[in-house]
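Subject: design request, 131 residues
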């Protein structure tokens, strides 16, 4: 049996619908909130049905001078069309995108991990410089 870290998948988000895409400024001011958006299925749409959906997105930050990531948050998506009338007949569906902000004091790497209920864990990274 493999370690979980060996099971996490990576790919180019432009051709793979499961990869979380991190959108933010490349450079941010220290001590000021910076907007961050993470989307799964940005270029290639990911299904959002009862049977196939994104369960959650986690966001981490690791500074250049450490290997220990800071867990910034978990964003869970609970509505995928479930209903007492049956699958995909519900009145609400969550879109697998999150917008938040983060205040940084050091440069480093933002990392996002997304969980597809069928295809497992996917991750991406983005460098961010605090100027």
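Subject: RE: design request

Done. Sequence follows.
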């Amino acid at each position: 049996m493999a370690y979980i870290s060996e099971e996490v998948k990576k790919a180019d988000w432009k051709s793979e619908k499961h990869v979380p895409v991190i959108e933010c400024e490349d450079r941010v001011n220290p001590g000021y909130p910076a907007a961050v958006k993470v989307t799964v299925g940005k270029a290639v749409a990911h299904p959002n049905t009862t049977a196939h959906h994104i369960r959650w997105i986690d966001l981490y930050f690791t500074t250049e001078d450490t290997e220990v990531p800071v867990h910034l948050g978990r964003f869970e998506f609970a509505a995928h069309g479930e209903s007492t009338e049956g699958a995909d007949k519900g009145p609400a569906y969550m879109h697998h995108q999150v917008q938040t902000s983060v205040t940084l004091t050091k440069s480093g790497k933002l990392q996002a991990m997304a969980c597809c209920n069928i295809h497992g864990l996917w991750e991406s990274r983005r460098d961010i410089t605090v100027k």
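The mean pLDDT is 95.
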